[in-house]
Design goal:
7 strands, Rossmann fold, about 40% helix, single chain
C-alpha cells in the first residue's frame, strides 16, 4: 500500500473506492457456492492451481465453469436463495454517493451473477468483472474484460483496474478478501481486508484495515474524511 493520507487530508472527489464482490460484498463466495452445487469435477484441485499462481484468474474460472452444465438463469436463481450481502452494503453505497466518493466493483467473478445479485443503485455502479457466455453447444466461455496496459502476472486483472483508475483519481482505496485481490492490495493507496486476504497482507508487510461489515468501513471513511465536505 502506497498512501499515507491522514484524516481530513484528502478530498472525497479525489478518491475512487474499488470493491471486490465474492466474499467481500457478499458474505459467501458466489463462484464457490455454484461450483459446490453444480460442478461435475474436482473444482478444488483447479482452485489450488490458481492459489499457487499456476494459472491466471481467467484460466481458472474458464476451467472450473467448463464443468458446470447450467445456464446463467439457473445459476442466479439458485444463488439468490443462498447468498447474503455483507451487512451495511446498501448504506455504504448511499454514503459514497452523498459524500462524492467514486465507487466501482472489481470482481474476479462472472458478470452474470454480479449483476444478478447486486442491488440496483442510482446511478448504477461501474462493474469490472470476467465476462461469461453460455451456450448449450460450447458450455461456458469466460474472458477478461477489455483493458489497456494489461499486466501478465496472475493477479494482473485487478491491478490493471487500479492503475487505470489512478490516471483519473489521486487516491485508490481497495476493499477485498481473496487470492485474486493480492495484486490490487500491493498497489492501492489504502486497503481494507477480511480473511484470507487480511492474513496474507500481514505476512507480506502490507497495511490493511480489518473489518466485519460495511458499517465498519463507513465509520473509518468518515474519520478519514472528517473536516471535508463535498
Amino acid at each position: 500500500m502506497t498512501g499515507s493520507e491522514g484524516p481530513g487530508n484528502v478530498r472525497a472527489d479525489d478518491i475512487v473506492v474499488l470493491v471486490d464482490f465474492d466474499g467481500t460484498i457478499t458474505e459467501e463466495d458466489v463462484g464457490v457456492i455454484l461450483l459446490k452445487k453444480y460442478s461435475t469435477t474436482d473444482w478444488e484441485r483447479l482452485e489450488a492451481r490458481f492459489a499457487r499462481g499456476e494459472v491466471d484468474i481467467q484460466q481458472n474460472m474458464q476451467q472450473q465453469f467448463s464443468y458446470v452444465p447450467h445456464d446463467a438463469d439457473a445459476l442466479v436463481e439458485y444463488a439468490r436463495t443462498v447468498v447474503s450481502l455483507r451487512p451495511g452494503w446498501e448504506e455504504f453505497v448511499r454514503y459514497c454517493g452523498v459524500t462524492g466518493l467514486k465507487l466501482a466493483i472489481v470482481s474476479g467473478g462472472l458478470d452474470f451473477y454480479v449483476h444478478g445479485l447486486l442491488p440496483v443503485s442510482d446511478p448504477p455502479l461501474d462493474i469490472h468483472s470476467l465476462v461469461a457466455e453460455y451456450t448449450t453447444d460450447a458450455g461456458w466461455q469466460v474472458t477478461l474484460p477489455v483493458a489497456d496496459d494489461r499486466n501478465e502476472e496472475p493477479e494482473g486483472f485487478k491491478e490493471d483496474i487500479v492503475c487505470r483508475y489512478r490516471r483519473q483519481y489521486t487516491h485508490v482505496w481497495f476493499i477485498g478478501n481473496g487470492v485474486s485481490d493480492r495484486g490490487a492490495a500491493r498497489v492501492a493507496d489504502r486497503l481494507w481486508a477480511v480473511e484470507p486476504l487480511l492474513s496474507w497482507c500481514r505476512e507480506h508487510g502490507i497495511d490493511a484495515a480489518p473489518f466485519e461489515t460495511f458499517d465498519d468501513v463507513r465509520a473509518q471513511f468518515q474519520q478519514l474524511l472528517s473536516g471535508y465536505e463535498h
